[in-house]
């Protein structure tokens, strides 16, 4: 796992998104010395208006936490 990524802190930041209820299956790894990858599942409120906006917000939170080469976010109602 990349040293600069603090899983618990990132999880808390993702949970701070208003419509996110749960963060699970978060996997972070390094492809190379300078290419980090993350995959995460977010359980969201069923009444969420815009999944596209939630995805963008989650990506913004993740990128503010560390520099990732690839980000995969799966939203689940």
3D architecture notes:
With 77 residues, the chain is an alpha+beta fold. The protein is built from two helices and three strands. The chain has helices at 7-15, 51-65, and strands at residues 20-32, 35-44, 70-76. Strands 1-2-3 form a three-stranded mixed sheet, covered by helices on one side.
Provide the fold topology.
Blueprint: H1 7-15, E1 20-32, E2 35-44, H2 51-65, E3 70-76
Parallel strand pairs: 2-3
Antiparallel strand pairs: 1-2
Number of helices: 2
Oligomeric status? single chain
How large a portion of the residues is in β-strands, by DSSP E? 35-45%
Please provide the ordered H/E string of secondary-structure elements. HEEHE
Q: What descriptive keywords fit this protein?
A:
77 residues, alpha+beta, 3-stranded mixed beta sheet, elongated
Summarize the entry for a quick read.
The chain is an alpha+beta fold. It has helices spanning 7-15, 51-65; strands at residues 20-32, 35-44, 70-76. The longest helix is centred in the last third of the chain and has 15 residues, at 51-65.
């Amino acid at each position: 796992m990349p040293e600069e990524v603090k899983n618990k802190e990132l999880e808390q930041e993702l949970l701070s998104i208003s419509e996110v209820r749960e963060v699970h299956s978060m996997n972070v790894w390094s492809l190379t010395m300078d290419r980090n990858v993350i995959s995460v599942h977010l359980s969201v409120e069923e009444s969420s208006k815009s999944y596209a906006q939630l995805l963008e917000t989650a990506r913004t939170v993740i990128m503010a936490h560390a520099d990732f080469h690839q980000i995969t976010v799966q939203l689940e109602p």
